Amino acid sequence: MEESTFEALFILLFVVLPCGISGYLIAYKGRRGLISGFNENKFSNPQAFGKSVGLSLIILSIFMTFIAYLWYLGGLTENQMSSSVIFLVIGVVVNYFYGIVKYRKKGN
Fold first, then answer.
1. How many Cβ atoms from other residues are within 10 Å of residue 32's Cβ?
2. What are phi and psi of 30, to 5 degrees?
3. pLDDT tens digit string along 31-47?
4. Helix, strand, coil percentages for the chain (3-state, nearest 5)
5. How distant, in Å, are the alpha carbons of 4, 63, 85, 97 from that of 92?
6. Does the predicted model carry a pTM greater than 0.90?
7. For helices 17-28 and 46-73, what crossing angle results, to 10°?
8. Residue 22 to residues 2, 5, 18, 19, 64: CA-CA distances in angstroms?
9. Own/partner long-range contacts of 71-80 (Cβ < 8 Å, ≥24 apart)
């Protein structure tokens, strides 16, 4: 097997699966305790916050699947791949902080 095959499998096993499963559990099964530092008493709508964070993780895993596939095919350079990953991770972090600002209880 080629080196790109192992790298793509590594991305799928250690990025896509954990993010996808965690996102599903947070968004659809209500396991908001998986979110680091989450306290339901600090949010006006904890379900909406959890759904927002969970969906952003699911979207991250979908796009990481595309990135791994393009990497396997040789359609991405290292710089394109790393900048795409950084862009996606920044999107998840921005969504997290946006959710904190939007759904936190007033006065906290």
1. 20
2. 70, 20
3. 999 998 899 999 999 99
4. 80, 0, 20
5. 26, 12, 11, 9
6. yes
7. 160
8. 30, 25, 6, 5, 15
9. 71/4, 71/7, 71/8, 71/11, 72/4, 72/5, 72/7, 72/8, 74/4
89 phi, psi to nearest 5 deg: -65, -40
Q: Do 56 and 95 contact (CB within 8 A), yes or no?
A: yes
Where are any strands of DSSP class E within 2-99? none
pLDDT in tens, 32-91: 999 988 999 999 999 999 999 999 999 999 999 999 999 999 999 999 999 999 999 999
Q: Six-digit token pair at 16?
A: 């896509």
Residue 6 is inside which H or E element, if any?
helix 3-11
Cα maximum dimension of the chain: 57
- DSSP-derived secondary structure letter, 105: P
Amino acid occupying residue 62: I
